[in-house]
Here is the input.
Amino acid sequence: MISVLRNISSLARCCEAGGQSDLHAVARAALVWEGPTIRWVGAEAELPAEYRAITSFDARGCLVVPGLIDCHTHLGFGGWRSNEFVQRSLGWSYHDIQFAGGGIHASVAATRAATEEELFTRSENFLREIVRLGVSTVECKSGYGLNDPTEQKLLRVYARLAAAGPVKIVSTFLGAHVIPIEYRDRRSEYVDLLIDETIPAVARDRLATCCDVFVDAAAFTIDEARRILRAGSRAGLAPKMHADQLSWGGGAELAAEVKAISADHLEYASDAGIAAMSARGVVAVTLPLATLYLRQRSVPARKLIDAGVAVAVATDFNPGSAPSYHLPLAMTLACVLQSMSPAEAVKGATLYAARAIGIEARAGSLESGKAADFAMIDAPSVEHWLYHFRPNACLMTVIDGSIRWLDSERLETRMSDQGTLPTFT
Ligand SMILES: [Zn+2]
Here is the structure.
């Protein structure tokens, strides 16, 4: 079935050409899709004759952007850690909390204790909220299991969520999140286990498409990360990194060396590391919610962009340092904290986010032949959307051509002059 959306005030196509701030916006636009695929995008006045006779949906002057892509989350976990929010408010540091038995280790204990069904239901509930924000794809990391049964439990949950909807899922294996407590005095054994057994098994069973490592004084060294990421690459898993978050550790440099698809965090990335990332085409994923909650210095986003690095924006949703899955809030914070323009934040949460998780060929921009994933926003422009922050400005989310979220009540209150209102099909 062919569908036509008309009366769009501005449509941000977010194509590959140009730089971070080039959204290839079309004013007074229309969008045509057939089943799960976009067929035509352009000015409504130029809508081809073959589509004019089709009953069209009325966007009522909304902004339309590609479906947002949250390219860095830790979606599946047991328990919460609101106690650490209090500790941090009182001045405890990330490492103070971790060394006192909190942090990632606390979530590992709670996640090991949770059943697969509990984790599935909870994650599905998160996604039902997330899709309402205009998000069409979520990257989900394991990493709160740190043993084979629990890591596989998390990755199975993500596979089930991918099949069940409402959003698309990209799974990342993060067995190298921290050294599990039971391996504290024999860390090399844990690294060998990941390399020799766990990573090949995850790849063989197609439980993930990416492999991530947290490089930090309280997590993995550069040399350990290099070995783990190379093992992942050999198995067919694309390398990603948590790099230079709490201090400089050579993470950006290693990301370039192993040709990672992304290096994430980067608050303390060096100039040499940034230059190396640019030369190798590594996407920088910035996580301003974590920067805010940890009260850290901001990511040098301007320096990254000026160096030619594509800068993606994501939430880092997790129970400790970023307990929010609100991607539009992260985008507004990227403007406020990281000196990115609204246009740059939008490209960072669409095309460049798709690139950071290896799905750019199918998602991230509104172009003929790509997936019909888009969000209809109650704002006249991307600038107005991210400036006038509200709990939710998204009125409709379409994924693979199907409406997955629609706020018909608010849509009805907007002025209309074109066609019928969209409805759930
Ligand atoms: Zn993370």
